[in-house]
Design brief:
Elements: H1 3-16, H2 29-40, E1 45-49, E2 58-64, E3 67-74, E4 77-82, E5 97-99, E6 110-111, E7 117-119, H3 123-126, H4 131-136, E8 141-147, E9 150-154, H5 162-166, H6 169-179, E10 182-191, H7 195-203, H8 208-211, E11 220-229, E12 232-239, H9 241-254, E13 265-270, E14 274-279, E15 283-293, E16 296-305, H10 312-345, H11 359-371
Antiparallel strand pairs: 1-9, 2-3, 2-5, 3-4, 4-8, 6-7, 8-9, 10-16, 11-12, 12-13, 13-14, 14-15, 15-16
Helix pairs in contact: 7-11
Length: 378
Amino acid sequence: MNMDEAVAADEETLTQRRGSISPDAYYRQDVLEQEIDAIFRPSWLCVGFKQDLVQPQDFITTQIGPHSIVVQNFEGELRAFRNVCAHRFARIQCAAKGNRPLTCPYHGWTYDARGRPAGIPMNRQSFGLNDADKDALALEAYALEVVGHFVFVRMQAEGCDLKTFLGGFYDDLLHLSQMCPDRIEAESFEWEANWKLGMDNAAEAYHVPMVHPDSFGAILSMDLDLTTEGDHSRYTGGLRDRSLKWWGAVAKAVELQRSDIYPQYGNFLIFPNIIATFSYGAFLTFQTIEPVGPQTLRLNNSSWLAHNNGRAARDMVAETLTGFTRQVREEDQAICKVAQAGTRAAALSQRPVLGDMEARIKHFQQAYVRHMPPRRAT
């Protein structure tokens, strides 16, 4: 091979390592609007947990860009709707979760399980709406399915069922739910970063030695196996001896019942915005990353512990684990803010360079491009 051929081969290798998303896609409002329509509306999105919807009138809400979603328990039946009153467009349920009828706080319009305004104060005197009118004013309904702990909603009317969408990850979520019934944490945070940047960061372990040397880096073996299925991907690997020793002591102290399918480390990326991490077959961290604005994301974080004896040691273990996840989360939040700032300074013609340890980012970005309309030059 002569020098020109060597240079051409090097350029080809670098081209093959380029990612698929340009820097401006991490801060442009028009790109976010396209993402909401092309990626989030057609996808099954986890909006919360079955445990928060046990009693009649229990509800949960979530916000995906401009879209407010409510899931309500109607005498044991879960239904999902656009969370906007048909009367004067006020939000109906204003808290993240709670227990109250699906009643607008502005004028008291109350909606039934079909989304119809079944209760309209002073209807006869003020509106004179009949049953057909009420049918026409029904809230927009969304598809809803549940797997294990997890409540999924699809905003777009047409599409595949949840099991088809998740593929093999449907069974993974069911298994994780069965193994880890003890929820020890559920919080939400806003970060100064685009949602895709949060997913890029969660998808790879290459940053772990630099960003998490005393937290995640101290427990995770960097030898990870990647498998993909459709738009989704899975990492499996081992834990360091230090972590295995700690978990062994914990398992005895609280009588943990571990998974034998993922006995050490499993990490699951479900497109477009779910990251689940399963450690020692006994500890699940489940996160959704939602777009708030072009440069702001919402991280919904929950943690779950395997079946245990529920004694005093359980609380100490839970405190240790939530402290660990807090440290990792804060380290990621800080570095994602730094990376977000860099996207505004990068040349628009640039694409990220992705090494072998970032192959899952490449897979995520390729899935992203498949769903998005072609970008026009600016």
